[in-house]
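Hello,

Following up on my earlier ticket. Below are the two sequence lines again, exactly as submitted.
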Amino acid sequence: MAHRPFASAPYIVGKTAPVAAEPHIPAEESLCPVVSHDWVNAEYKHLVVDASPKALAVKPGQFFNLLCPSPDEGELWLRRPQSVYRIDAAKRRIEFLYKCVGRGTYGLAQLKHGDDLNMVGPLGVGFTVDPSWKHIVVLGRGVGLATLAPISQLAADNGIGVTAILSARSPEFVMAGDLFAKVGDVIAVLDTDGSSAVENVEVILTRLIAQGRADAFYTCGSNRLLQLMKRVAKAHGIPGQVAMEQVMACGLGPCYVCVRTFEVDGKKELRRVCIEGPVFDLQEAVGW
Amino acid sequence: MVDMRVKLGSVTLANPIMPASGCFSTDLAQVIDLNRLGALVAKTVSREFRAGNPPPRVSEVEGGMINSIGLPTKGIDYFLSHQVPDYKRFTPPLVGSISATTIEDFEAMARDVSRSEIDVLEVNISCPTRDPKGGNFALHAEHTFNVMRLIRQTTDKPIWCKLSPNAGDVVAVGKAAEAAGADALVVSNTILGLKIDTDSFRPVIGNKFGGLSGPGIKPIIVRMVYQCSKAVKIPIIGCGGIVKVEDVVEYMLAGASAVMIGYLIFRNPSGLIAIIEGLEQWCAKRGFARVADLTGAMIDEPPRETYAAAAAPIG
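Thanks for your patience. The regenerated structure is below:
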C-alpha cells in the first residue's frame, strides 16, 4: 500500500533524479521501495528499503522521519522518527528494526515488498568515535539495541574493539545478537534469569574498565541503564554518548516539540532531540 | 510564463507561498532551497528567554494536529545578534514575529526589532496557548486597536497583524487592526482545543489546551479570510491547513493575497516547493497570466431560489 502524500516532490528511488540544487541540501524527502519486511519475533519487525543517495549518507545514530501508512480507518497526520539499524552501502539499502507499539509503528508494519516508504532524512546528530580508542562498550535494552548496531559496526570498521551488553526481557528479545557478534563480544543479560539487574550490569561494566576495555560508553533504550552508565562513567572519567527519543513533529528543528532536559554545570536546559541530538553527551543527559 | 509575484502593500513577494511562524527556521535548509520561498517568517520572539511549555507539546488529531509549544525563545538580544543575520544569508524578504504580554512591551519590542534588517514585522497578538486561559490581545477589537496603533506609531516597517480564530467576531478585530494602521492581516493563528487520552483520562498535551491546525481547520479559516476581505481594504494572508495547490487557490479566491503554510512542513517538507511549482502550473493551465488575479475571484452570487436550485442538474 504505497502511501501518497498530499503534495510533495520527493526523490523517487530508481525513477527520477532531482534537479541539482545550488545550495548544499544534506537531507531530502524520498520515496524508498521496500525490499523486505519481516517479523523477527512477536513484537519487532525488520524493514529493508532501497535508499536514495542522500539517504545512504546516513551516519550511525542519525534518524529518518517516516510517513507511516495508517493501521486503521483514520489517517496518520504526523511522521514518526526512526533511527537506522543497518546501512548497507554495497546494496544501497537502509534497514530499520522497530517495535510495534502504537498507530505509527503498526501502520508501518503493513508495508509490503515493493511499497514506497516516504522518508525525510538523514536527520540529526549521530554518534562519534575517537580513532585513538581501543575498545568501547555499548549497553542497550529492547529496541535501543537497534540504534547501537551501526555505531558498533563503525567502531569495528575503525579497528576499535566492541563489547555489546544486550539487555532484554527474555532470550527472544535479545535483538541483533548475531549482528553484534560479528563486530565484537556479546554479553546478553536477561530479566528471566535476573542477570539484567542494574547491580549485575554494574559488575560487568566495572570488570571491563578494570580490563582496560572501556575507552568510551554508548547507551540507548533504558533510563535505568543510562543512569548506571552515567554514574560509572563519571566515577572513572570515561566519555559517553546516549541516543534519546521524544515525541516529535517536524524532525527538522523549527517546531521545538521534541525537547528533553539536560544539565550542564548544575544548570538545566532544554534541547531538541531532532537537531541537537538524538545523540547527546552522557553526562549532560538528565534521562526520563 | 506566469507572473507569480504578489504585492502586500509596499512589499512584493516573488510568489505567494510563505512558511507560517513557528513552523519554520533556517534549519529547513536541510531539505529545501529557502531562496525559492516568497518570504522567510521567523519564529515569534519575546524580550526575555522563554523555556516554553511542558512536553508533550504535540499530538495528532484527525485532520491535523494539536500543539502547545509556548513560544520558546532565546530572547530579543539573541534574535537580533544571531538569528536575523542567519536569515539574511537567504534572499527572500524576512518577516520578524514578536510577542509580549503588555502593550508597553509590545511597543518596545516593535521599536527594537525594527532596528534590525527585518523587512516586515508580524505582530503575534494571537498565540492561543501561552496563556492557558486562551486569552490574548486578538480576542478583543479594542485591545487589538490599542496595541497595533502604538506599534504603528513606533515603526516604519510594514506591520502584519496575526489574528485569532478564537475571537468571537474576527471581522471586528481585523477592522480594528486596519484602523490602527496595520499593513496586512494574517488570518489566522490556531484554534484552541483539548484532546484527552482515553486510557489515562488525562489531557494529552502537557499544557492541557493546545492549538488545532492542519487540513481540518481550513474551511473555518477560508471563511474568515472571505469575511475579513469583504470588511477591510488591506491585504490578507491566509493561514490554516494548506496541504496542496488547490488549497492555496481556495484561499486566494476567498480574498487572500498570499498564504502561510505550517502543518505541511511537518508532513511533507518538500511540499512548500512542490506547491510553488504546482501553483505556477495550475495558473498556466487555467490561463491566469498573474497569480495575483486569483485574489478575491470567487464568484459571489446570491443563493438561488430553493425550488429552482433543487430542480437544477447536479454540478
